Amino acid sequence: MTAMVQIDGVEKTYKGGFQALKGVSLDIREGEILALLGPNGAGKTTLISAICGITMPTGGSIHVGGHDVVRAFRKARAMIGLVPQELTLEPFETVWNAARFSRGLFGAAPDDAYLEDLLKRLSLFDKKDNQIQELSGGMKRRVLIAKALSHDPKVLFLDEPTAGVDVELRRDMWEIVAALKETGVTIILTTHYIEEAEAMADRIGVISKGELLLVEETDALMARLGRKEMRISLNEPLGAIPADLSDYDLRLEDEGQALIYSYDTRAERTGIARMIAALTEAGVTIADVETSQSSLEDIFVGLVHQRDNAEGDAA
Fold first, then answer.
1. Of 47, 84, 246, 287, which sits with the fewest C-beta atoms within 10 Å of its C-beta?
2. CA torsion angle for 81, 84, 87, 88 (degrees, to 10)?
3. DSSP of the chain, one letter per residue?
4. What is the residue extent of each domain of the chain?
5. Closest Cα to residue 145, out of 95, 76, 182?
6. Are strands 186-190 and 155-159 parallel, antiparallel or unpaired?
7. What is the widest separation between alpha-carbon atoms in the chain?
8. Distance between CA 290 and CA 2 in Å, rounded?
9. Of 110-119, 132-141, 207-216, 257-266, where does the model show the most confidence?
10. CA 16 to the chain's CA centroid
11. What's the CA angle centered on 166, arms 163 and 169, to 5 degrees?
């Protein structure tokens, strides 16, 4: 698949010496949804700002649709739509005029038919003559998306698109993003909602302290790093795990009322049958058993933790 955005060794160091980006390299494919996960200060917004030409990288190169974002800024920027996290809108402007004005800012010729179709796709057309101050928070976010798409860009950046939005409106936003992907728009979103990335993204990138830790297909990431846990509730509490069970990855929880067994989902054999048999032989009686898959949040936290530990060891 063709790379719509090519990021090669991008660095950003500010005057005070703080390095916000440390040699980030990434190809973003045409028509995909890529989610960037990372804690506050990880470099997500700085990376987006560098791609959009808002901040100047101090090293490396970025191309959008084949155009260098520094040497061919106007051509590159014309291919990009940006939806910021903040609701930066003129309260007394109408929805229609806001979208029409944004289109003009990029030098695009007037096209009322395109804008009408865009507002209909975003369920905004019936509000086109309303002042923005009259809209709900969810509708205002739709207006931000309309403004970002007003010049028909090929790449859309969504910086925390559902921050502060209730669950119902968040799911509406997911549907909007999925519909935009169907039209061929390449979408890059930053999010703090792990389930959002897991549900929507084709690929997930994890960034921490200015470094891209990995970029991988969502399903493959879950399969490669995911683990399952079996929770075994006991009829009688244990003071300690029996010595005969020391070969199994077990831990006690709930004051000895439960055993947690961790196992690799990729392993040819999980060892569950042998472990249950060993429990019976040790005289441990089981009240209930349930399993759960590691979430993307578990994986994300683990990756960042591994990186921090590696830095500590190097120091």
1. 246
2. -70
3. --EEEEEEEEEEE-TTS-EEEEEEEEEEETT-EEEEE--TTSSHHHHHHHHTTSS--SEEEEEETTEETTTTHHHHHTTEEEE-SS----TTSBHHHHHHHHHHHTTPPP-HHHHHHHHHHTT-GGGTTSBGGGS-HHHHHHHHHHHHHTT--SEEEEESTTTT--HHHHHHHHHHHHHHHHTT-EEEEE-S-HHHHHHH-SEEEEEETTEEEEEEEHHHHHHHH-EEEEEEEESS--SS--GGGTTS-EEEETTTTEEEEEEETTSS---HHHHHHHHHHTTPPEEEEEEEEPPHHHHHHHHHHHHHHHHHHH-
4. 3-223, 227-293
5. 95
6. parallel
7. 79
8. 44
9. 110-119
10. 29
11. 95
User: What is d(CA 263, CA 302) in angstroms, rounded to the nearest whole number?
Assistant: 16
The residue type found at 287 is A
Please, what CATH class does the domain formed by 227-293 belong to?
alpha beta
Instruction: Give the β-pairing of 59-64 and 67-68.
Output: antiparallel
Average pLDDT over residues 250-260: 91
CA dihedral 269, 274, 275, 278 (to 10 degrees): -170
> Quick one: tokens of 88?
């930066």
SS3 assignment for 253-298: ECCCCEEEEEEECCCCCCCHHHHHHHHHHCCCCEEEEEEEECCHHH
Per-residue pLDDT tens over the stretch 24-66: 999 999 999 999 988 788 899 899 999 999 999 999 999 999 9
CATH of the structural domain 3-223, one choice from 3.40.50.300, 3.30.450.40, 1.10.3720.10, 3.40.50.1000: 3.40.50.300
pTM across the whole model: 0.74
The predicted structure's pLDDT at residue 307? 66
How far is residue 277's CA from residue 32's CA, in Å, rounded to a whole number? 47
Work out the average pLDDT over 229-235.
89
